[in-house]
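Protein folds are increasingly written down as discrete tokens. With that in mind, we are printing a sequence and the tokens encoding its fold.
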Amino acid sequence: MIYSKLLHKTNIVNHGFFNKTNGFSKGIYKSLNCGSGSKDKKSFVKKNLNYVQSKICSKKNKIILLYQVHSAKFIHIKKIPQKKIIGDALITKNRNLPIGILTADCAPILLLDRNKKIIAAVHSGWKGAYKNIITKVLKKFIKLGSNKKDIIAAIGPAISQKSYEVGEEFKDKFISKSKKNRVFFKYKRKKIYFDLTNFIYNQLISFGISKIDVIRKDTFDKKNNFFSARRSIKKNEPDYGRNISVIMLR
């Protein structure tokens, strides 16, 4: 489990960015696979989620997760949902209610307003980033009374630029949106690479967020021990596990 130093020192939240370590799953899902949407045994996934719950000291409530669809949709949680919720970000002011998102190369983002006591967990792959999911979540914070100077953002482990090869059409899509996006693409040996983490960092800065923690761990790099969709596809594996990132107001 990896902490954000900025979030940790507030003493307001319990949180963590988890990799594959210390779970119950076997084979290609070994070992802390928290993705119920994977083809892993449901009993293993349940045990893994219970382990994560214990690590963030949530004795009362289970972790609230989404059915993620690479959208810009967020859900403001006021009470424990009784049915499946669809979207890519969760926001809550409830204490002792852990919220989380799943990733396997996409960027997890945890947010905290330390004054108004608001938290969010955001799933942002390139589609979510392109659709400005983080900006939409931050606008909701402002509607709930947040001041930008009180918001802390932590961008968790994601695929790094050196591992994120994309095509010409992908690059053109972003540059058509804004020519300034050229800086997030790099050419190397006639291949194009996209910097997802810095793209999201720039969105946060552009919104006026100054307290940002960036955890630079490449999920594609096997030595970092994260699940990676792109690495699994490259190895022709039939499926892959999901990493979980969680935050909870104390």
Q: What stands out?
A: DSSP finds seven helices and twelve strands in the chain. The first strand starts at residue 13 and ends at 17.
